[in-house]
């Protein structure tokens, strides 16, 4: 049997250690991680291997050669351009003429490969994916199987709000040669995103093997250190563990040949010391620890939980705690490296210098003697796993999101676009965001990108401007978080005005973390100019979309709370054009002030109560609260009673069904089931989409309108993003056309009751909880969301259901119960909240 070892990865998340070497060549204790994989294959009788290489292929080829030194036969398939996981294997198709195994060259595992192959053959599968449980599945592909092991669904790198299982794809596959015929030759094609979904859709026998044993993707610096230490402690059965002799007087200490350890040194294992090392007197090393070949540790130095690569020098009384140090580094006397510090190849840390926790120093840098290094080339002080949080880059203004960082972010985003492209800029009206926006603007021209400055306009208007302008390639919107005025948020938009896709986020992150940005020549610098009247474009298209005549006849009277947002610069003129009479609250838009009004649930609730009181007292038609971005729309009826956002979705759906034959309304999984009843009465259709509808509605082009149950309304025919202005106008138009009031529409809805409960749940337990619930209720009662995921819905009976979904931004699980009575809904919500709590401690 043959195997394919995929070794083309660059390993950007291992920077700065990875610079100058491909990820499969990162050493795990005493040999590259790919060598561990090759010897695992050999242990299971697989000695003929095709190695797919692309990034720094020469380094791998020169180290392993033809494989004779390992008693194996290696062939190399070199990608001139990246072809994706399946595309790279397709290139080796001529030599893969029988069942073969695919395994990653940059993961560490001791899984029983023989058992996986036997499982594949017993089930006569065309493809078998090796699966394992992972408490944090965000960076992996989640796989859902039935009780027989047959694969039912894939989720590729879900967000926390989308996780529906903790069963992930390890990237170890057993395949029949015939599946390669499904792969196009010479162009990028991926196993998990392209090939396996196609096989699943075609009904081919696709199975998942739940593996026991050890597997980890050596994908981050933390996972790399853990993998090294797991080899030392025996957590992974690596037959290629420390090969040196264990010193009898030093339990758990392995030393290779030509290494000398002063008898006065104090070593507490597990520790691996490579060949040719010198450990001086009074040195203290607390394991787990790894010391690479030909390294010198001088007297009184201290190490704990640290990894040194070959040919380093550690000076007198140097102190390393939880650090990783690359090749050929010099750590001078009395210097200190704190927990999580990383010093890349060829660096020198001067005498008495301090490298603080989580700081990363790129290759060939010199830290002056006595210096304190508090920041690094990785953004911020927290060294985050990801730059983007959801769809924004966020951090404490002027501390984490500094002008320097903003300029680097602008240049990184600009690098992802063709030179000469134009990016639109926008901000909220506060002093801090003005500073950050100007820094972003400085970064974009440096990458050869032109800037169209929109000053400060509502976010929906900004999105519309980008979408309506053929010359605009994307946008950046800066605001202070309404919940925490210290936090600045940068939202990156694509050419359609929607939030950029996750793959573009990761590309921007790569450019930021690597400090690898395009620098334009002086004659190719981008230009900066003000945008051409985006408000006028919005007003024109807004009024063209609507039929103003019914509203002008109805002459609605309303009160609007603008929350001091820039919507107050746009909506009044639109309401005038629609024949409305209105009373404005909080309509002044601040300029160049440091603070930001709060928009917590309590703040919004207080504003809504004030609006409701005025609506009732003045006998107006409805009350409106709009958030500072102009995206969320909260309502009261003519008697001042609050209309819950999910009820507002149902009311809009009812009005749309009456006004438009064959209407299609999109709603979240947790929306009440009365929507289907309304649709059935009027010949309409309900489409269930994830709670965050942005970007999803655009995929369903027939959708008349959508609501997420949190106040965001989308009218796709106008623009497929949340827009409180067009949402309000659409509500008024529907009320005018149907001759109804909001109170009458809500009162006519079929009786339904919903209760919610929020259960604290650690990020790394959400997938396990949802998978366990799905399995325990069985496929006939538990239905996961569509391919994008949102949680699970459990239909108890025709009248009762429960939706359980992780929060997108907080470590919570939301439980939404629906039942015929308020008491029953509350009881059901509390019951399932208890189940979620219990499953976390099972």
Describe the structure concisely.
Helices cover about 30% and strands about 25% of the residues. By secondary structure, it is an alpha/beta fold.
Task: Please give a structural write-up.
By secondary structure, the chain is of the alpha/beta class. It folds into five domains: 2-217, Spore Coat Polysaccharide Biosynthesis Protein SpsA, Chain A (Alpha-Beta Complex); 242-373, 3 Solenoid (UDP N-Acetylglucosamine Acyltransferase, domain 1), CATH 2.160.10; 388-536, Alpha-D-Glucose-1,6-Bisphosphate, subunit A, domain 3 (Alpha-D-Glucose-1,6-Bisphosphate, Chain A, domain 3, 3-Layer(aba) Sandwich); 559-567 and 578-587 and 596-747, Alpha-D-Glucose-1,6-Bisphosphate, Chain A, domain 3; 753-840, Alpha-D-phosphohexomutase, C-terminal domain (TATA-Binding Protein). The protein has 20 helices and 56 strands. It has an eight-stranded mixed beta sheet, covered by helices on one side. The chain has a seven-stranded mixed beta sheet with strand order 5-4-1-6-11-8-12, sandwiched between helices. A seven-stranded parallel beta sheet has the order 16-19-22-25-28-31-34, with no helix packed on it. A hairpin with a 2-residue loop joins strand 2 (27-28) and strand 3 (31-32). It is globular and about 95 Å long.
| Spatial order of the strands forming the largest sheet | 14-15-18-21-24-27-30-33
The CATH homologous superfamily of the largest domain is named: Spore Coat Polysaccharide Biosynthesis Protein SpsA, Chain A
User: What spatial form do the alpha-carbon principal axes imply?
Assistant: globular
CATH topology of the largest domain: Spore Coat Polysaccharide Biosynthesis Protein SpsA, Chain A
Q: Termini distance?
A: 41 Å
Overall average pLDDT: 88
Q: Report the CATH architecture of the largest domain.
A: Alpha-Beta Complex
Number of domains: 5
Please give the CATH class of the largest domain: Alpha Beta
State the helicity in percent bands. 25-40%
The percent range for strand residues is 25-35%
Rg result: 30 Å
Number of helices: 20
* Uncertain parts: 240-249, 377-385, 784-789
